[in-house]
Amino acid sequence: MSKASMVALLTLAYQSFGVVYGDLSVSPLYVFRATFGSRRRGDVEEREIMGVLCFIFWTLTLVPVVKYSFIVFCAHDNGEGGTFALYALLCRHLKLSLILNQHAADEELSTYQLEQPITSSKGIWFRQLLDRHKFLRNGLLIVVLLGTCMVIGDGALTPALSVLSAISGIRVAAPHLHENVTVAVACCILVLLFGLQHIGTRRVSCLFAPIILAWLFCNASIGLYNLITWNPSILKALSPYYMYHFFKVDGKEGWIALGGILLCITGAEAMYADLGHFSPKSVKLTFVGVVYPSLLIGYVGQAAYLSKHLDQVDHAFFKSVPNPVFWPVFVIATLASIVGSQGVISATFSIINQCMALGCFPRVKVVHTSNHIYGQIYIPEINWIMLILCLGLTIGFQNTVGIGNAYGIAVITVMLVTTCLMTLVIITVWQRSIFLALCFFGLFGSIELLYLSTAFFKVPKGGWVPLVLAGILMLIMYVWHYGTTKKYEFDFQNKVSMKWLLNLGPSLGIVRVPGIGLIYTDLVSGVPAIFSQFVTNLPAFHEVLVFVCMKSAPVPYVSQHERYLVGRIGPKDYRMYRCVVRYGYRDVRRDEDDFENQLIANLVEFIRTEEAMSSNAQSFEGDQHLTVMGTTPALLSNGHSVKEMETDKSVAISNNESLQSMEWISPPTSLIPTRRVHFDIPVSETVDSDDVRKELSALAKAKEAGVAYVMSHSYVKAKMSSNFLKKFAMDYMYTFLRKNSRDPAMILNIPHTSLIEVGMFYHV
């Protein structure tokens, strides 16, 4: 490895401390308390401390180190990790439709990588099995949604547990302080934490890594001190024999205690989910080299202290801290808990954004908190919902034991989902033997199922919280995905045939007025029914028509030079085009992007290169051929002159009875300043033909006349013949979600005065 590569790796490794390990590193604050929380003071014995330490050691070693660091990290989607990354990887290799409007050109993206084509009999058989049985495909989606919902639930549970665990340490220094005081202080910190989310973390993120490193150093130092001072012989508890002895003597009580032990691996899934921000090698280096040893020494030190102070399992960490350094450690622990909470909150925003991109979550407002750091976003609605949930959990439980019971179910469920998906990846993507995949699932699945069984035992004691949250989220996500799928299928089945369009002639049987009409649709081929609905009721349309499809591709990111697909609909004199704009499921769409000018620049590039690509472009009457255009914002500044002008334009729309099936956004009667852009045709290095110059001139004139945006205003209803469940899901739940989600025009930053909405009824 070169010196530059080594420096880059170490830089990434350092930065990962503040983002990846906040949640995992603060687990020593509450593991022993959650494990023995239901015991009466004085009931704990030394052999039980040794048994719990043995479980902590082997769980930390097998799950985060062996499973994640050395196996799961190898299954990434172009460097991206997490539940959706594994699902996208499976969908690409099994030819499953992750995206509704998937296009053949998506497979040519540079990030659309296959490990190797499926050639093994096992992989082919499994793909055919999914093709034959729709319920298996739906089952796979439900498993993915379950894991995703549990991760989102972590966004509410982690801040409550981490902050309350840190603040409760103050009662060690002031034993007579009432518990309500610590709850109130924790609530104030949570309100401050969520209240500052809108400013982003750019200004303080440089402090995250030093805080976590300081915390890990404190944890390891105190652990080493306690080990040497109180009981060095506790190291013999690392022998697997003590797990057997723990179960043999304690029986059911020992099995119940596992619900607290599993909290030692909270945050392990975050390592995998945050791969995209760093690299597998840097995350593996920091965890195996620094985080894992520090946590292990800290747990061993706590066990050594508790073995000689059996009545102090409550607030075990803070009671094991030497008095001279108590307050500095308390401050660092509080800061570390806030950093860990911040990481989970930011991850929740990112996951919600991914779900929206894949059509699995209602549209919500996404705010970019940094112009310099890509991917830092803030979602107001989700932020305030999580704050309410955090405050409710903190005030309702008032201690970390109940919250820990809830947190345990969420943590272990996500890990089990990852194990299931990883087993399929081993068979279908890596094309290894079924025996190897079963060995993987048998080892790690059995560990996680054991912990899951004890976690479900604690459902009445707080474990019901993540189940209720996951149930509500899964219902919302599945209904939204189902309704979106049915709506797309209706659009696809009712699109206008090209024969009908060509029979209309160049004028399309209507009056062509100056300007450009952008018709938004989910279809990547064909003419949507919204167009025929429009021209039927109002026989006039713009001189240049562009059917725009903003779609997600089954990859994490789409580079700018591959983002636009441009094609022609019908012959040249129709002046009709199609533009497909592709985003990855982890791409963040910025409202301030100059989409209008980029679109026109790509049309210019397409018109100029069309003749070079096809000698018979004049006679082209199809709609299937789309060309990747490599226009970037730099082309606009170098090749096109764009002048911003403010003009006064009033728009009058008549209230005609023939427009009853259409819904319009009516502007105010006063004159409204609207933005217009003067577009100059750039000088080409090659001499344009007369036809090209004529078409470019028409495009420039149309742009000067203005741009109108046409979108459908959908009313979705279940068919009369549908069963009760479908009618309730579509007519009530899906309709409610649509009415309370963000309007598509606002997401696309479409000017209000330039928007035309066409009413469309969908009977699905």
Give an overview of the whole structure:
The chain is an alpha/beta fold. The protein has 2 domains: 3-482, Amino acid/polyamine transporter I (Up-down Bundle), CATH 1.20.1740; 495-615 and 687-763, no CATH class. The chain is built from 27 helices and 11 strands. A 7-stranded mixed sheet has the order 7-5-6-4-3-10-11. Strands 1-2 form a two-stranded antiparallel ribbon. A hairpin with a 7-residue loop joins strand 5 and strand 6 (576-584). Helix 7 crosses helix 9 (179-195) and helix 11 crosses helix 12. The chain is elongated and about 90 Å long. The chain starts with a helix and ends with a strand.
What's a quick, concise take on this entry?
This protein has 764 residues and is an alpha/beta fold. Helix content is 55%, strand content 11%.
Could you outline the blueprint of secondary structure elements for this entry?
Elements: H1 3-20, H2 22-25, H3 31-35, H4 46-70, H5 83-94, H6 121-132, H7 134-167, H8 170-173, H9 179-195, H10 208-230, H11 241-250, H12 252-261, H13 268-273, H14 280-308, H15 316-319, H16 326-357, E1 367-368, E2 377-378, H17 380-397, H18 400-428, H19 434-457, H20 464-493, H21 498-503, E3 511-520, H22 529-537, E4 540-553, E5 564-568, E6 576-584, H23 595-613, E7 627-629, H24 633-639, E8 641-649, E9 672-680, H25 690-705, E10 707-717, H26 724-739, H27 744-747, E11 755-763
Helix pairs in contact: 1-10, 1-14, 4-11, 4-12, 4-14, 5-18, 6-7, 7-9, 7-16, 7-17, 7-18, 7-20, 9-17, 10-14, 10-16, 11-12, 12-19, 18-19, 18-20, 20-26, 23-25
Membrane topology: Multi-pass membrane protein
Protein name: Potassium transporter
Domain K+ potassium transporter integral membrane: 12-502
